[in-house]
Amino acid sequence: MNLKPVNPNTQHKNEHTLYLGGSGAGKSQAVISNTAIPKKGRVILWDASGDHAGIHTENRREFIKLLKAGIKRGSFRVAYAGSTVEDYEWFCGVVWAVLDGDYKTHVIAEELSAVCKHAGKATKNAAVLLNQGRKYGLVFHGVSQKPQEISKTYFDQCERKYIGVFRGDNAEKMARYLATDLKAADIAALEELQFYYHDGKATSQPVLKKLKYKKPAGIKWV
User: How many angstroms separate the CA atoms of 193 and 110, rounded?
Assistant: First the structure.
């Protein structure tokens, strides 16, 4: 395995995306419904709960073994089921090492608040991955129900966002984050599986998306 990514390509656009919403909003469903994430391609997951299709393992050696085999095939969907900030730092280091600017690599990270030490700058490997991964084909998808607890690096680097139902202070925070005509009351009025999607462009307004539940298929633990 390489110790650093290869084939930098500055033509890659920033497609990093955050999926934010209160408990039960349907955030994982928003990820599953995002057709930009390929069914066949390079997909790496931080997914302890098994919310997404793929081969899942808690073993670091097995995770690297699965990634190496997938890279040889050219298509893979592999998940590491870690649980601590240290596990996530290791995971981000491995992802950074396998990036290749000749390909897009989609990385899905569930419940970011559990792997952020504070709301300031992200931990070292996570910050490198988010700040520099784009030119090596990284497309990051981060999920959280506690936006007040995730590092500002994710807010800074993820231009695209799906905002589900929040109430109270978090609804106010999300309205400010979107920086559009939407108010906190609009976000508080959302129902399960309803999201405002914003593409990050200053001239765009959020689009209301009403999703249908899709059962994640093909989850395997090894």
Answer: 17
Instruction: Please report whether residue 11 resides in a domain.
Output: no
* C-alpha span between 111 and 48 (Å, rounded): 9
DSSP letter, residue 67: H
Contact 164, 27 (CB under 8 A): yes
Residues β-bridged to residue 141:
17, 108
Domain count, the chain: 1
CA dist 160 and 180 (Å) reads 13
Query: Which pLDDT band, with edges at 50, 70 and 90, does 169 fall under?
Result: very high
Spatial distance between the Cα atoms of 206 and 75, rounded to a whole number of angstroms: 33
In a 13 Å sphere around the CA of 35, the CA atoms on its Cβ side amount to: 1
Helix, coil or strand: residue 39: coil
Which CATH number do you get for residue 168? 3.40.50.300
Which tokens hold the place of 163?
Answer: 């905002």
Residue 42 has pLDDT above 90, yes or no: yes
Determine the length of the chain.
222
pLDDT band at 3 (very low <50, low <70, confident <90, very high): confident
Residue 47 domain boundaries: 17-221
Q: How far is CA 114 from CA 72, 143, 215, in A?
A: 32, 11, 24
Q: Round the CA-based radius of gyration of the chain to a whole number and report it.
A: 17
